[in-house]
Amino acid sequence: MKEPLLRLEEVSKHFGGLYAVNRVNLDINSGGIWGLVGPNGSGKSTLFKTILGLHKADEGSIFFGNRSIANLVPHQIYALGLVNTFQVPRLFHTLSVLDNMMVAGRGHQGDSLINSLFFRKNWQKQEVELADRAMEILELLEIDNLVGSPAGELSGGQRKLLEIGKGLMASPTLLFLDEPAAGVNPKLGRKIFEKIGDLCRKGLCCFIIEHRLELLFDFAHWVYVMDKGQIIIKGTPEEVVKNPSFYQVYLGD
Amino acid sequence: MDPLVYLLDFIVFIGIFSILSLSLNLEFGFAGLANFGKVAFVLVGAYSYYILSEIGVPFYLCLILCALSSAIVGFLVSLPTLKLREDYLAIVVLSFGEILKLIVKSEGWIAGGVWGTPVSPAITIDGVSSRVDALVNIGLVYFCLSICLIMAHFLMNSPYGRVIRAIREDEIAAEALGKNRARYRAQIFALGSAMAGLGGGLYAQYIQFIDPYMFVPMLTFTVWIMVLVGGPGNNWGAILGAGLVTFFDRGANIAKDYLTLPIDPSNLQYIIYGVLIILVLLYRPQGLVKESHVKTKALDRVSHERTTVEIRRS
Amino acid sequence: MVNWAQILLNSAITGSLYLIGAVGLTLTYGLSKFPNFAHAEYITFGAFVGYLVAEQLGLGLPMSLLAAFLITGLGGLLCYRFVFQPLAKRGATIIHLMVASIGLGFLLRYSIGAIWGWEPLYFHIDWPSYDMGPIRITSLWIWIIFSAVALSIILHLMLIKTKIGKAIRASSSNPELALASGININRVILITWFIGAGLAAVAGIFRAANTQIWPMTGWDIILPIFAVAILGGIGNYYGSIVAAFIIGLAENLGVVALMALGLSTSYRIAIAFAILIITLIIKPQGLAMLFRRG
Question: How far is it, in rounded angstroms, from Cα B53 to Cα B117?
Answer without folding.
Answer: 12
